[in-house]
Amino acid sequence: MKFIHKIQKMLGWESPPKPQITLGDAFYSQLKPFRLPFILMVLTMFVGTFGYMIIDDFTLMDAIYQTGITFTTVGFGEQAPISSAGRIFTITLIIMGFAIFSMSVGVLVSQINNGDLVRLIKENRMLYQVARLKNHYVICYHNEYTIEVSEALREYHIPFVVIDPRADLEEIAKEYKYPYFIQGEPHTETSMLKAHLSSAKGAITLSDNIADNIAMIASIRLFEKDHYVPRPYFLISNAQNQNDEEKLLKLGANSVVTPAKLTAKRVTAMAARPDLENFMEEFLLQSDNPIMMEEVLIPKYSWLVLKKLKETHLREIANVSIIGIRSKAGVFKPMPKGDMLVTSESKLLVVGTNKGVSYTKKIVSLRTKPEELKYV
Fold first, then answer.
1. What's the CATH number for 290-375?
2. Which of 57, 253, 272, 314 is at a distance of 20 to 30 A from 73, taking alpha carbons?
3. For residue 265, what are the CA distances in angstroms to 232, 259, 269?
4. DSSP letters spanning 69-129
5. pLDDT, tens digit, for every residue of 127-182?
6. Has this prediction a pTM greater than 0.70?
């Protein structure tokens, strides 16, 4: 089996990832009304087959065939001469077939008009699409914040899934271009499994109600422990005041956005340094901007571990500058010198072009020294 799996992987024949939760029970409940027509159909075929065998001495296959064409009223004629009793029996089968067919059509129309079956098919298709995501963000609740955040994430090609309990979420998703969405209460384990949280990078909960944000953070941290997630989720939330901000940080939020504090900082920056008012927007936040700043994690296995910064030659081979180092303990060292050692699981604050930063990520993830350094 392992050999076959390797062959499939090499040829790209691997089956697509499956969602962590399925809608089997929901589909079964929708198909329940079809049980009676199906049982009646099987019973009619059984009675018809044995009836033809007993009344007109048909063989088993001839009896099954005659029952089938009679029951479905296709009108292919008699398989063999049928007696008067057999013709009365045939008329009875035709009436039963028409009755069962009419019942089945009625049940089908009723289930389609109900809308639940179509909704389940759409949701099941969405679950399989979400199951393909990795390192995505789960955004909890739709509101004004979600609209702005989703637009920014799309510009940076960061995948995300929106969870909201509203019945009209599909129409909202079409209007605001949410590629992936799950209808349900975000704090429930079912919704988290549907959003494929186990493969996500983190979650964003920006509800106007502080209770919703508290419930989300607590639920995600519990999900993290119950499902043995390899790395902690990065959780972002918002708060209306400093008291709520402290509560969310204690519960496990990595970053809490307070509108009043952000506004105050922006106004202060505008007053103190008018010439730098739009620096962040122009050089770091615009999608078409050539300059990019990002923290790059140094894995345990990276060849850079215990190397001096000047020995990495990232400036020469990736055209980026290192303007800071954050140790594993969280201590930040700005403008490090070339003799500073790169430690395991530290983070390099890198500034450069988008291409250069991406290339730097690739270089630091290597286990062995790259070929490019032989010529530097």
1. 3.30.70.1450
2. 57
3. 29, 10, 6
4. HHHTT-----SS---HHHHHHHHHHHHHHHHHHHHHHHHHHHHHHH-HHHHHHHHHHHHHH
5. 999 999 989 999 999 999 899 999 989 887 889 999 999 989 999 999 999 999 99
6. no
